[in-house]
Amino acid sequence: MPPLNAPEEGVPAAGLASWQQDNSSTSYASYAPNMLSELPELGPLPETPTSSPPAPGPLLSPPASFMRTTRPRRFSNISISSVAATVGSETQSACVGSTRDLTGRSPVLLINYQELQYESEVDKSLECPICRTPFHAPITTKPCGHTFCSECLLRAHQLRPVCPIDRRPLDVERDFCKARVIHDQLDRLRVKCPSQGCGHVCARELLAVHYERYCEYTPVLCPDNSCDLWIARQDAAPDKGCLHKYTPCQYCSKQVMKAGLEEHYDRECSGNTVKCAQCDSSVVQHRMENHVANDCPSTVVLCKWNKYGCGKSAPRHDVQAHEKKPCIYQAIGRLAQDREDDRLIISELKVRLSAAEGRLRVAEQEKTERRERKRRQAGNTNNTMPPFVPDLNLSNSPRAAASYNNGTLDSPEDYMLAQFERMETQMEDLRKNIHELDGLHSMRLLNDTMRLNEQIAELGSKVGVIGMHTTWLMNVQRQSRGQQRAGGVVGSPLSSLASSSGGPGTTNSATGSVTNAARNAPDNEGGRYYNSSLPLRRNSDGRGENPPRL
Amino acid sequence: MALPKRIIKETERLLAEPVPGISAVPHEDNLRYFDVEIHGPSQSPYEGEVHFAVRYRWRGIFKLELFLPDDYPMTPPKIRFLTKIFHPNVDKLGRICLDVLKNNWSPALQIRTILLSIQALLGAPNPDDPLAPDVAKSWKENEQAAIATAREWTQKHAVPN
């Protein structure tokens, strides 16, 4: 086993040098120093311009803010017009096409959607798996259904024409389609304006318009044609000239761009601070006025409520303490302030009211004029006819009257015709309704009578059965009477049976008569009851089998 | 050039919810450069010495360096072992033969997934696709001996101080 010549731990440089053999274009040794200079705002950097002596003119690196604004110009070169053609997204036009602002003065720096700050945290499902930021102009792959930002997917596709997630082969023309559903969700996301200094927050779909047209902080191309740096729109007036020329700072004689002067004063200029004569703190010189007027705790100021009678004047920090609690004029002052606010509101309302009144008067005037004109017209067309006034019975329907009054119809004849037509249509409607109702009623009637008919038929059959029973009973009675006459037995068997059993009269008497009848007529069916030991069944039980054949 | 949001997010997540057995810490002065430590996977010659009471008497910890190129995530990160390791897919300079670091890279992959792949590679050496031919050869001829060597190397180089 040959001894391996591996680098020692913690000393990457030794190994890095040898690694360059096959990674000549991308070696760490060359990366690291590059990165140091390319990361001006991230991480503590040892070599900041404050410590280094000022280099003359263009050799000096511009301050961080300019680095930031110049960078995405490279980004703008990435053409995604091919997607715009295939996918046809609306939002892409916002980031690609409109590089001119409203006045056509100068191109606007494009929005880098990946760097946007969102107001609240965005759902993870709306993040592109490639750039890990909320989708911009999302595209979904048709065969596998994965979604990416169009820009991310196209860049990945240029390197390898497969889906970045499952490596399925993809074709730009055939397999990409716009992800419409999440489009709306993305449009609703609240986002901060990317311009430095602008705190505007809006829905994402409105951002492009705000940024390109209205935001005063949007970086636009410097008005000087020879300069290719970006500057906030509010500073880009042509009369101001190019603000990117280096001039020596008046305090520390360092070379500074005019556009970055404020930042330079506030952050890094060392010769710029002065001591405040009153409070002994060091203040940036050009902020001194502001400091004295608003901040300096030692400046003598009047009490806030001096308008309302408090005469206190003292250094600011004393006055502030005094204003808060003990000043007796505070209550009055507050009241007075409220009153002033109210007065302002009232005056504003008065102005609005008078304006509204004026408008109302004008409208009324126009209305009366129009009515006059119409009346005159009506008089001119037919002098014999009295001026038409919508009659009570005609103006019953407010709509029709309104349509006449609004002047949509020219003459009373037209109006009458219109009325007539309207009535006709109404009549037609009514006729239809009546027909429908008629049908409905007949149906209902039919249903009801059907039921009644059935009931009647049932009742009829019952009556028939009862009739049969009575005739049978009558027969039985007649027969028994004939017997009595023949046997000379006195007394009705029915009454004797009823008195002996004491039960329900009709049925028992019927069975009794059956037994009697059966004795005399053994071929009768009822005879079996008598002969067998079974208890006598009531007539109603054996309704189907018992009725005698008459 | 400012750091892309993706790198910031990935770094934040790596630090906030690290993968078990893997740590990746960015350099303060270059946020694209990471110091990585991977624990040898268990039941592999790189895991360290197992002890019955405490789980490991010592654990194999491998140091790597990771660099995110300018066009990351369109190009894969550059990764290299700093700790010497006896493995058929890692050469003597620490370079790693892993498909997702070369042709099979996809921009949807992340630092954490790549580091997990490397940890898996330690658990499953692939001598059929070697980067270190001599190691692969010994691995194929006598696997037991090769594993013993790997264990020995782990004890020699991958023991934490």
Automatic annotation (TrEMBL), chain A:
A zinc finger (TRAF-type) spans 264-320. This is Ubiquitin fusion degradation protein. Residues 18-29, 506-518 have a biased composition (Polar residues). It comes from the Eukaryota. GO terms for molecular function: zinc ion binding. Residues 51-61 have a biased composition (Pro residues). Pfam families: zf-C3HC4_2, zf-TRAF. It comes from Lasiosphaeria hispida. Residues 128-167 form the RING-type domain. Residues 264-320 form the TRAF-type domain. Residues 36-50, 483-501 have a biased composition (Low complexity).
UniProtKB/TrEMBL annotation, chain B:
Residues 2-159 form the UBC core domain. Its EC number is 2.3.2.23. InterPro entries: UBC, UBQ-conjugating_AS, UBQ-conjugating_enzyme/RWD. It comes from the Eukaryota. GO terms for molecular function: ATP binding; ubiquitin conjugating enzyme activity. SUPFAM superfamilies: UBC-like. Belongs to the ubiquitin-conjugating enzyme family. This is E2 ubiquitin-conjugating enzyme. It comes from Lasiosphaeria hispida. The lineage of its organism: Eukaryota, Fungi, Dikarya, Ascomycota, Pezizomycotina.
